[in-house]
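Go through the following before class.
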Amino acid sequence: VVGATRLPNLYLATGHGTLGWTMAAGTARVMADVISGRKPGIDLKGLTVDRYPGAYR
C-alpha cells in the first residue's frame, strides 16, 4: 500500500514484505512526489489504501 489517504497528512508506504530494502528507493521517490504534490512517475492505481473496501469505516 503506497500513497496518500483520505485523512489529512497521512501517507502510507507499507507491505513490501521481504522486498523492503529492494523497493526502498523507488518507494521513497513515489512518496516524495505524492507528499510534495507532484505526479508520481508510476501509476498508483491498485496500490493505494482505496483498493480495500471499508478501509475508512
Q: What stands out?
A: The chain has a mean pLDDT of 94. DSSP finds one helix and two strands in the chain. Residues 5 and 50 are 8 Å apart (CA to CA).
